[in-house]
């Protein structure tokens, strides 16, 4: 598989020799930049154990992103602090470093990076089968910033004036042991020290984004993945991902994004995991991991500025486990104030039979208030 990817590059490059490059020296960069947010989440939850048993769950979160630029070097950090509180039950804090790396642009085509980075591979909104070196998304907050892994990465990038507009190639090395990338060590390599390497070929071909990814590990099964994203019309996009392991287990995702002329956005995605749980296995499982079943359908509908109410959105989200017909529904409204404060209020409910995935959640339903100050 390594040979296949390298041969593909050697074949493609000569075919598209009519290239162009941007002169980045013409653009003056700031020495540094920063951004972040402060966020308060409050959930008033009704528990499944007792219909009269309610619980108030509070979550505080702060994020600070900072980048510093010097000559060919970029220093990037993304620091987070969280505090979770449930009265008389739980109080804990956490301070993860989401990203912390140094990147060197050797020239306009070649860069190297060392440190902790969140790669963000894949085209799906809620789940990414090809994100071999990323932590899984939270399906309740798929756009939430995620902690990366410690890696070293080499990248090659080239632009063209042909049907192939851009080509890039990444080599990523991720070591895993009980002292480095410990989560990957325990969850993916099953407490075995490992050397993990991924090769990623990106093509912007016929105005279609395409990634071909191969992952090698000296202790786990190798994987290959491919994804794509294509705008069929200016307001209609389709995307997909497929990944497979050497034992023939595979997963794929197919989705779309459609925007109407009155600014209603519809996102739909179907996910299938060949090694996911069927209905009987779900009934016997105590796992709390998301996307544990074989297949799901997820829909998100958002209306921008309904009834001509500026800076507001209303939305509805449904996540259905097709194996046991249980589901999670969310209905909410958000408003963006001019002082960079956002408010989001939603009602969330889990439904299904008592032994289904969402039916046996500890929380049956909850009202969720989220306040965010962005800076």
């Amino acid at each position: 598989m390594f040979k296949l990817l390298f041969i593909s590059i050697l074949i493609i490059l000569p075919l598209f020799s009519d290239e162009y490059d941007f002169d980045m020296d013409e653009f003056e960069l700031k020495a540094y930049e920063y951004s972040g947010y402060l966020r308060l989440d409050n959930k008033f939850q009704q528990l499944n154990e007792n219909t009269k048993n309610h619980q108030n769950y509070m979550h505080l979160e702060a994020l600070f992103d900072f980048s510093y630029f010097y000559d060919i070097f970029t220093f990037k950090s993304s620091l987070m602090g969280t505090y979770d509180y449930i009265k008389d039950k739980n109080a804990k804090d956490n301070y993860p470093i989401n990203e912390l790396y140094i990147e060197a642009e050797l020239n306009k085509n070649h860069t190297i990076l060392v440190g902790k980075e969140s790669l963000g591979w894949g085209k799906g909104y809620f789940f990414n089968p090809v994100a071999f070196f990323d932590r899984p998304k939270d399906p309740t907050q798929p756009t939430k910033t995620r902690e990366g892994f410690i890696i070293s990465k080499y990248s090659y990038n080239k632009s063209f004036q042909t049907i192939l507009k851009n080509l890039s190639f990444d080599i990523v090395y991720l070591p895993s042991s009980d002292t480095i990338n410990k989560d990957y060590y325990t969850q993916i390599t099953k407490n075995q020290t490992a050397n993990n390497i991924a090769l990623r070929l990106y093509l912007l071909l016929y105005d279609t984004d395409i990634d071909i990814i191969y992952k090698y590990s000296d202790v786990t099964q190798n994987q290959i993945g491919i994804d794509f994203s294509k705008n069929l019309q200016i307001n209609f996009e389709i995307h997909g991902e497929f990944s497979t392991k050497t034992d023939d287990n595979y997963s794929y995702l197919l989705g779309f994004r459609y925007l109407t002329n009155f600014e209603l956005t519809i996102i739909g995605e179907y996910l299938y995991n060949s090694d996911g749980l069927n209905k009987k296995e779900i009934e016997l499982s105590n796992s709390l991991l998301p996307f544990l079943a074989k297949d799901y359908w997820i829909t998100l509908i958002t209306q921008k500025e309904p009834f001509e109410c500026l800076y507001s959105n209303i939305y509805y989200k449904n996540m259905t486990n097709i194996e046991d017909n249980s589901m999670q529904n969310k209905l909410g409204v958000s408003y963006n104030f001019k002082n960079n404060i956002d408010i989001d209020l939603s009602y969330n409910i889990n439904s299904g039979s008592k032994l289904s995935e969402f039916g046996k959640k500890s929380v049956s339903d909850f009202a969720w208030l989220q306040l965010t100050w962005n800076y």
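Confidence is low (pLDDT under 50) at residues 1-20. The longest helix spans residues 2-15.
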